[in-house]
Fold each of these.
Amino acid sequence: MKVVGILHGKGGVGKSTVAVNLARALQLRGYEPVIIDCDAQGTAQSWKASRGDEAELPPVFGVGKASALEADVRRLSDSFDVAVIDGGAHLDKMHASIIKASDLALIPVQPSPTDIWPTEQIVELIKRRQEVTGSPSAVFVISRRKAGTKLGDTVQNVLSRFDLPVWEGTCDRVAYAEAMGKGRSVVEMSDSKAAEEIQSITDNVLNTIRHE
C-alpha cells in the first residue's frame, strides 16, 4: 500500500478537499483507497456520511493520536492500494507521524505568501526525514487559486525558496463545496474544469508513487 499524506500547519487551505476528491477519483479508476482522517473536525468522515445514495465510498478511519497512526497504517496495508491521510492543523506530533508514514507528502497552499510561510516547519521535517530514509517525496499543491489568474511573482519567489515541485492544483470553484456537501467528488459533478483539476492531481500522484 502506498501512502499519500496531505498536511499543512493551518486550517482552511483545502487539505480535506484534496483528500476526499483524490480518494474518490482513485476509487473510480479501479483502485482500493482508504482515507485516514487525522483532522479533529472529522471533515472526511462528515463527507462520507453526507452521501445520499447507495454508492460505496472509500472507507474513512479516524485517528486522533500520532502514536496510533503507524500501527493503523500497517493494519490497513494488506487491504488497500492507497491510503490518503487527511492531516489536521496545528498537529506537530501528528505531522511528524504522517511524514514518517508517507511515500508522498502533498502540501496544499493557497497562492498567498501568508499561507506559504507557515509551511516552513513542515518542509523542514520532510527534508530531515528525506536525509535519513530518502522519502517521502513532497510537492506543493496550489489550492483555491482564482480561476483565470496565474501565480504572482511574489508567490513564485516564496515557493522557490523551498526547492520543491509545485502542482497547479485547484481553483476556487463552487463545485468543490457542493460536492463536499453531497458526499461526492467533483469528478462526479457537472463542472468539467474542477474535474480536470482533480484528475490532473490524481495523474500526478499515481505517476509519483509508481516510481517510489
Amino acid sequence: MPLGYLATTVLIAWCAFFAVVAPRRPRRLAGMSFLFGMIINEVPHFGIYFLAASTALAAGQGDLGSTGARVTVAVAALTSLALAYSFWLGTRADRPVARALDEGLGADWRDHVTTPLRRHRPWARILLTPAYMARRDVRVVRNLSYGDAGRRNLLDLYHRRDTPQNAPVLVYFHGGQYSRGAKSREARPLLQRLASQGWVCVSANYRLRPETTFPGHQIDAKKVIAWMREQGAQYGADPARLFVAGSSAGANMAGLCALTPNDPRFQPGFESSDTTVTGAICFYGFYGHYFGTPPDEPAPPMQPQGYINPDAPPFFIAHGTNDALGTVEGARHFAAELRRTSRNPVVYAELPGAQHNFDLFRSPRCEAVVDGVDAFTARTLAP
C-alpha cells in the first residue's frame, strides 16, 4: 500500500468534504468547514492537480496493484469529481451577480455605464497563479499612518502609476473577527482591479481585541475616511466619490460607516470631519450582535441593522450559501431590511457554493464578484 499516495488522497478528500458539503451545524463542524474548506473551495483545481499527479506517480512506481491502492484510486476519483463540481459552481457565479444587479439597479442599468460585465476570465492566471495579484500599472504605497495606534493605524494605498486626477476612492477593511487579520490579505483582486482602472484604493489596519473593543474599531474606520478626505488629493483622489468596503467583520464596519455619516459617537476628537460615503460594498459579512451581545445591548447599537434609515447610501452585498461563519440567513435579513427602508439601490448577490473568504484568490467566483462591484460603482457614479 503506497502510504504517501494514501495520505495525499485522504487529506484532499477531507478538505473537499468541508468545501462541498460544508456542514454549518454544530458550531464545531462549522469551524472545520471554514478551516479546511475555504481555500480549496476557491481553487479546487489545485486539489485535482495534486490528486492526478500523486496517482500518476503511484502508477509509475507500480504501487496500484493492491486492493487498498485500488480503493484509494476510487476515493481520489470521487474527490476529483466533487472538486470539479465546486469549480463549476465558481464559474457560474456571474449569473447570480448579474441577476442581483438587474434586481437592485433596474434592468436598464447597462444603459448608464460604459463598462459592461466581462464575458471572459483571465484563465491562465486563474488556473496557474491565482494567488499572484500584482499588476504592472498599479503602485502600492505601504504603511501610511492615519492615527496614533502604531502599526494598527497604518494603511496601504493603491493607485495607477500615472496617478490619474479626480479618481474615485475605495476604502477597505479586512476581516478577522476583530481580533486578527491584516490589510494585505483579503480583497486584493478588487483593490488591484479598481486601481488599475484609475481608482485610489486604501486597505487599512485597525485596532483589534483585546487592545480595544467596540466602538474602538469603528472609530478607527472613521479615521481612515477622514484621512482620505484630508490627504487623498495628493494621490489624485476625489474624496467626494468615496465607497467603503469590507469582508467579514470588515463588512460589518463598512456597513456601520455607511449608515452613520458624521455621527459624533464614532468621531471623538474629529467630529467636524466629513465621513459620508457614496456607497458600501460588503463581502461575507457578519451583521449580528457583536460577539453575542444580548438584545438589550448598550447604546450605541453594535450592528448595522440598528442604523438602517431611508437615506442609507447604495449597498452591494455578496454572500455565499455555504458560509459557515457569517450565515447567509443573516445576510438575507440585512439586505431585506435595507430594501424595506432605504430609498437607494440594494444589490444582494447570493453565491451558490461560496464560503467565507471567497476574495483571497483570483478565482472565477471572485472575478465575477469584482465584475459586479465594478458595475455597481459605475452605475452609482453615473449621472
Amino acid sequence: MKFFALAALAAAATLSSCATEQARPLPTAPQPVTIEGAWSDPNGLLSTFQAGNFNTRTTDTNQLLASGTYVKGQGPNLYEISLTSHVQNKQSRVNCALISPQQLNCTADSGAQFTLTRKPGVM
C-alpha cells in the first residue's frame, strides 16, 4: 500500500510540474549573413564591401589596389564583383561564394582562385 501511495504521489507531482511549466520562447530566425564588412587574404590585403562598393588596400601603406562594385548573384550565397585593378589598369570580374559567415571563396575571370577571411569588428 505504501508503494502505491508513493507511486501515486510521484505521478501527481509529475503532472503538476507539467501544468506549471512556462511556455518557452520560440527560436528567432538567424540574421542573414552578407559580405558587408572587411575581409583579408593570406597576403595581408584588406578588402572592404560596403553598400555595393568594393575596394582592396594594402595594410601597411593603405594603398588602393583595386576598386569596383558588387551585386548579389543568382544563388543564395553568391556575389559578383566588377573591379578595376589600379596596379594593372585592367578591369575584371570575380565570382564569390559565401561558404560561412567568416569565409568567402572567390574565382576571378582569369581562373585564379582565392579565399577571403572576415575581419571581426572592422568595417
